[in-house]
């Protein structure tokens, strides 16, 4: 499975592509950070991110995209910018029929380090180790994008099993209700 990991942001947007092999084997294919100037108008910043992401999608052909879920931060303008960047990414994927999965920072940290409260240094160190990289990916946005992709690779089988179980439960619920209606 080829996964594109995205750490969305307006100033720095981390992009990565990894490929999973057997078991927990993962190979890093590419990583970069898209930067936009803070003094540039918002539409131009979003356009820059969109153009880079679309180029990556057309170049790397990922099977799925893993994006960091924005849930709460203290700086509202940062949350808004991050959410807008994430929206541009999800839209580009939707245009190509690529599934998008959102993971919280604590899910990513737990998957990569075993600790949902790990700091950036721990995440970077584990990403470097898991991928067998010669040097730590920098800046942190690059390491975070790789961590998101790793997280999705390792969580995807569980996500698929959960979806199948939920679908089966819905079907069984429908059958049960039909039996109850038929009996009354």
Q: What are the key terms here?
A:
184 residues; 5-stranded mixed beta sheet; 5 helices; hydrolase; DNA repair; 57% helix; RNaseH_sf; alpha/beta; DNA binding; 19% strand; globular; Nucleotidyltransferase, domain 5
Summarize the topology.
Elements: E1 2-7, E2 12-20, E3 26-35, H1 42-60, E4 64-68, H2 76-95, E5 99-103, H3 105-113, H4 120-131, H5 140-183
Parallel strand pairs: 1-4, 4-5
Antiparallel strand pairs: 1-2, 2-3
Helix pairs in contact: 1-2, 3-5, 4-5
Concise account of the structure shown:
This protein is an alpha/beta fold and 184 residues long. The protein has one domain: Nucleotidyltransferase, domain 5 (2-Layer Sandwich), CATH 3.30.420.10.
Description of the structure:
This protein is 57% helix and 19% strand. With 184 residues, the protein is of the alpha/beta class. The chain has one domain: Ribonuclease H-like superfamily/Ribonuclease H (Nucleotidyltransferase, domain 5). The chain has a five-stranded mixed β-sheet. Strand 4 (64-68), helix 2 and strand 5 form a beta-alpha-beta unit. Helix 1 (42-60) packs parallel to helix 2 (76-95), helix 3 packs across helix 5 and helix 4 (120-131) crosses helix 5 (140-183). The longest helix is centred in the C-terminal third of the chain and has 44 residues, at 140-183. 35% of the residues are buried. The model has no long low-confidence stretch (mean pLDDT 91). It is found in: Cytoplasm. Mg(2+) 1 binds at residues 7, 141.
């Amino acid at each position: 499975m080829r996964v594109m990991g995205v750490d969305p942001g307006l100033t720095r947007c981390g992009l990565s592509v990894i490929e999973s092999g057997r078991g927990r084997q993962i190979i890093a294919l590419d990583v970069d950070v898209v930067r936009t100037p803070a003094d540039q108008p918002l539409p131009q910043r979003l356009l820059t991110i969109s153009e880079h992401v679309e180029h990556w999608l057309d170049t790397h052909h990922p099977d799925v995209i893993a994006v960091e879920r924005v849930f709460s931060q203290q700086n509202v303008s940062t949350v808004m910018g991050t959410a807008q960047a994430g929206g541009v990414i999800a839209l580009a994927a939707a245009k190509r029929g690529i599934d998008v999965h959102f993971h919280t920072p604590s899910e990513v940290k737990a998957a990569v380090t075993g600790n949902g409260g790990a700091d950036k240094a721990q995440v970077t160190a584990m990403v470097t180790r898991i991928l067998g990289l010669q040097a730590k990916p920098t800046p942190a946005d690059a390491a975070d994008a790789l961590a998101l992709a790793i997280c999705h690779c390792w969580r995807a089988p569980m996500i698929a099993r959960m979806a199948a179980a939920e679908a089966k439960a819905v079907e069984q619920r429908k059958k049960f209700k039909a039996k109850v209606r038929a009996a009354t």
